[in-house]
Amino acid sequence: MVYFLQTPGGLTKIIPEVGLVKEKLAEKEIKLNLYYEKFANTVLEYTPRVMSAILVLLIGMWIIRRVAKVAEKTMTKRELDVSLRFFLKSLLSIGLKIVLIVTVAGMIGVGTVSFVTILGAAGLAIGLALQGSLSNFAGGVLILIFKPFKVGDAIEAGGQCGEVLEIQIFNTILLTGEHKTVILPNGPLSNGTIINSSKHGNLRIDLDLIVSTENDLAKVKLIIYNVLAKNAKIIKGESTEIVVGRFSEGIVQINVKPFCLPGNTSLLNSELYEEIKQTFEANQIKLAQMNPNKI
Questions:
Q1: Distance between CA 6 and CA 27 in Å, rounded?
Q2: What is the fold of 18-129?
Q3: Tens digit of each residue's pLDDT (9 = 90 or more) over 224-255
Q4: E strand or H helix at 207, and its extent?
Q5: How much is the average pLDDT of 64-82?
Q6: Which CATH number fits domain 150-196: 3.40.50.970, 3.40.630.10, 3.40.50.300, 2.30.30.60?
Q7: Share of the chain above pLDDT 70, in %
Q8: 295 or 63, which is more confident?
Q9: Intervals of CATH 1.10.287.1260 along the chain
């Protein structure tokens, strides 16, 4: 504070007392000492926490990298799709890093309850908004992991039948016999019934033949075996069955069950009916004159 004294010559400025100045300097010194002590105490308190948090962060990042590499090797051994391997590896790495960051923040003293609550609420909102898409995504992941079918297989699913052209994360694309492209969502597909005609590499066809009881049954079966032996589309390593069905009104029902590749079923079925008919006629085998629907 500055003081003025009234004199005959006017106002004269008076210098403050030295004691007052010293008192103010002492007050400021005390405040500075308090700030310094508070700062020193804070440094001493948080330095071990910060050092521990940095150490945990470095070790955690190293462990996450190792876990991601092991996961990638495991998925490679299982021959998972490349895009699925990349996605799962990234998802695993990001998830572990979020857990690590939250842990490190808690070690330093940062409140993590609200942060975790916000993440949970955001995840719930996103999940509800993308419920259908997440269902298809989960179905695609299950299909790519467990492989009920693969690209090139002939399957029946979702009321559709065709060859698998592509397995995507959200959809599976089929090509039907009429060359129609069918896009099936992976959610219902993974939860429904799937008939894979290519899983074992071969497929059995069933031929129903009806001949007259006047024929020599042994001769008829021998002729059928000879026809089957000449057809190159039949897989010779598999056991072909020729089963005699029932007798009814002068006819004999014979079931022929050869194996072939999945892609040859329709063509082989037509070829065998034609070849057997021609061979029967050449060997005077009498066909039944009854409508097969009455059997």
A1: 32
A2: Helix Hairpins (1.10.287)
A3: 999 998 888 888 877 888 888 777 778 888 89
A4: strand 207-212
A5: 82
A6: 2.30.30.60
A7: 78
A8: 63
A9: 18-129
| CA pair distance 181, 84, nearest whole angstrom | 23
- Alpha-carbon distances of 120 from 44, 124, 133, 148, rounded to whole Å: 35, 6, 19, 33
Domain with CATH 3.30.70.100 in the chain: 203-294
The predicted pLDDT at position 21 comes to: 60
The mean-pLDDT minimum among 11-15, 191-195, 198-202, 268-272 falls in 11-15
Look at the block and give the residue holding tokens 């990349």.
86
pLDDT tens by residue, 161-177: 888 988 888 889 999 88
**Secondary structure (3-state) at 238:** coil
With b for 16 or more beta-carbon neighbours within 10 A and e for fewer, the 88-102 pattern comes to bbeeebeebeeebee
Write out the H or E segment, with its range, that includes residue 6.
strand 3-7
Fold entry, domain 203-294: Alpha-Beta Plaits (3.30.70)
Distance (Å, whole) CA 163 – CA 169: 18
Q: What is the DSSP letter of 180?
A: -
DSSP string, 116-127: HHHHHHHHHHHH
Angle between helices 217-230 and 265-282 (to 10 degrees): 130
Q: Residues 6 or more apart from 163 whose CB is under 8 A from it? A: 152, 153, 154, 174, 175
Strand partners, 253: 210
Average pLDDT, integer, range 137-162 = 86
Give percent of the chain above pLDDT 90.
9
